[in-house]
Design goal:
Blueprint (H helix, E strand, L loop, with lengths): L12 E5 L9 E5 L2 E8 L3 E7 L7 H11 L6 E3 L14 E6 L11
Antiparallel strand pairs: 1-2, 2-3, 3-4, 4-6, 5-6
Length: 109
Amino acid sequence: MKRTTKQALPPVRDTGPAGPGCEPGARTFRCGKLRMIVGRSNAEGWHMSISHPTRYPTWDEIAHARYSLMPPDIMVGILLPPADDYVNLHDNCFNVWECSKYKPVVLLP
């Protein structure tokens, strides 16, 4: 069964190149109040940061941005690194990382 979002979401708009400190070629996007930065590096693969100014992005918003902005045939995830490597520059931001090279032990139907 294909999952659908519970809410109608506005279209994703390209708002230009990302600033310094982002992957070369990364771009910024908006979807309502959401802001996204999407880029790809040879070492890490695809990466998307998604944030909202006043709250956490919802699951539907994260999924909408992921499927709008990243290739459909890659596996991505929200990862929690070891505590010593954890960085949080924005209180309401999630980072979605490509993890296609890692094969999950079990995929539930």
